[in-house]
Design a protein that fits this description.
heterodimer, A: about 325 residues, mainly alpha, B: about 160 residues
């Protein structure tokens, strides 16, 4: 055991974990700036401009503000669960990045069931919201938590079923092998990405992904016009910030899985000297994630919120049948060829 | 003791502790949350057995789906902490003791006959492909029977929800 702890493999593993965790942590902070800036541009406002160039240091200022805010724990709240809830939503969100391959060599661990691991963590994420809403012991958080649990259970189904077509084609559950299975091209220039083979699955995944991350137009759990702030109404200071971080981390996680499944992961044009070839896959992967994040932010700033019954009807009567049909058709095609 | 053994005992202790906590907690929500911890710890034990697929499915199905519905219902009902509903079912105790002993006997008898699998053999049994193959070949009838049972439960739920169908 001691030999392993001092071996080269272990030290490299630790470095990878620190690099990936640090990068995700920083990007989560930066995302709050991206979101404010993009939304402001869409709404013809300048957005944050005061702190640093282009307002880039705004997240840092926000962090400091959150740190010095008063920590309020409601008198009637269930203290233990109230404190645990932000952690319960934050930890699964960040654990996802343990299996995400950022590049051919930049991956903490490649599980043979990596894709299912991601879905297991997604399914645990709902507890943070449910427990947070319940333990606040107040009506708006409880209503938000109820909505959120029902919504996440409903959309998890279509989210999970939508990727089965991709898994059938690639014949693997490991995220790394899923990326490798897409590295060829058709006719020499069209990349062999699953988005061209599984367009229906792609649309279902992206839409369910919005619902899983509880963002507009599916943010019924927050819904500030009806529920104040939904499940985190009673939260303040660092605990509120942790919920925000979990939301952004989930957004990046959903985007990275979408990139891996449908946009070919780190695959992209390779050129230049040796060191550039090492860096390029990570650049492509990050760029594709950025594309998804940008899309989700645009979505938030342009589309109004669904009503609750519309949301449920859309999930059960449109997305779920679509993904089921997709599985049947894909199975037939895979069986024949 | 090797590192793997140390980890095994760590998670085994969590599983047993959480399982006991499920029984002794007065508040039903705490019991449900302990059950989630127990199921997650057991899924780690499956990883030690090289059954990654079962470990992940355990979390997805039990901790992620079924227990979410449990906590959902508990939170909606918002039961008082010290409900004394147990006394009415006192006669269950007398059935419970022989049934518990029978279950213990079954577990001991099964564990007595277990032969440890080699690492490579365990990998062959625990992979998604192996599980799928045996599920759809050797155990096709039980599998279909289970799906029929679930369908019946589903139809029952719809009938309950919409009485004037």
């Amino acid at each position: 055991m001691i030999e392993y702890l001092t071996s080269r493999d272990f030290i490299i593993l630790i470095i990878k974990i620190v690099v990936i965790f640090g990068a995700v942590m920083n990007v989560v902070g930066l995302l709050s700036w991206v979101e404010r800036k993009v939304m402001a541009r869409v709404q013809m406002r300048p957005g944050p401009t005061r702190v640093g160039p282009f307002g880039l240091l705004q997240p840092l200022a926000d962090l400091l503000k959150f740190l010095f805010k008063e920590e309020v724990i409601p008198l009637q709240a269930n203290t233990l669960l109230y404190i645990a809830a932000p952690l319960i939503s934050l930890i699964p969100a960040f654990l996802t990045f343990a299996v995400v391959p950022f590049g051919p060599s930049l991956q903490v661990t490649d599980l043979s069931v990596g894709l299912l691991f991601v879905f297991a963590l997604t399914s645990l994420g709902v507890y943070g919201i449910a427990i947070g809403g319940w333990s606040s012991n107040s009506k708006y958080p409880l209503l938000g938590a109820m909505r959120s649990s029902a919504q996440m259970i409903s959309y998890e189904l279509s989210l999970t079923l939508s990727v089965i077509g991709v898994v059938l084609i690639a014949n693997t559950l490991s995220l790394r092998e899923l990326v490798i299975s897409q590295n060829n091209t058709w006719a020499g220039f069209i990349p062999r990405w699953n988005i061209f083979v599984q367009p229906i699955a792609f649309v279902v995944y992206v839409v369910s992904g919005v619902a899983e991350t509880n963002r507009l137009p599916f943010d019924l759990a927050e819904s500030e016009q009806e529920l104040v702030a939904g499940w985190h109404t009673e939260y303040s200071s660092m605990k509120f910030l942790m919920f925000m971080m979990a939301e952004y981390a989930n957004l990046i996680a959903v985007s990275s899985v979408a990139t891996i499944l449908f946009l070919g992961g780190w695959n992209g044009p390779m050129f230049g000297p040796q060191w550039l070839q090492m860096v390029l896959p990570i650049v492509w992967f990050t760029a594709k994630i950025g594309l998804f994040v940008f899309f989700y932010v645009l979505l938030r700033s342009t589309i109004p919120r669904f009503r609750y019954d519309q949301l449920m009807r859309f999930g059960w009567k449109v997305l779920l049948p679509l993904s089921l049909v997709n599985i049947v058709v894909t199975s037939f095609v895979v069986a024949i060829t | 003791m090797s590192g793997v053994q140390l980890l095994f005992f760590f998670f085994a202790a969590i599983a047993v502790g959480a399982a006991i906590n499920v029984l002794v907690q007065k508040h039903v929500l705490y019991s449900a949350l302990s059950l989630i911890v127990m199921l997650s710890a057991v899924s780690v034990l499956f990883i030690f057995l090289r059954a990654d697929f079962i470990a992940v499915i355990q979390v997805i199905v039990y901790a992620g789906a079924i227990m979410v519905l449990f906590t959902f219902v508990i939170m909606l009902l918002n039961l008082p902490a010290n409900e004394d509903g147990v006394d009415r079912l006192r006669w269950l105790k007398f059935i419970g003791i022989p049934l518990g002993l029978f279950l213990l006997f079954l577990i001991v008898a099964t564990l007595w006959n277990v032969e440890p699998l080699g690492a490579t053999r365990a990998e062959m049994v625990g992979s998604p492909k192996a599980i799928g193959t045996s599920l759809f070949n050797d155990y096709l009838l039980p599998f279909e029977a289970t799906s029929l049972l679930i369908l019946i439960a589903l139809v029952g739920a719809v009938v309950f929800a919409k009485k004037d169908l």
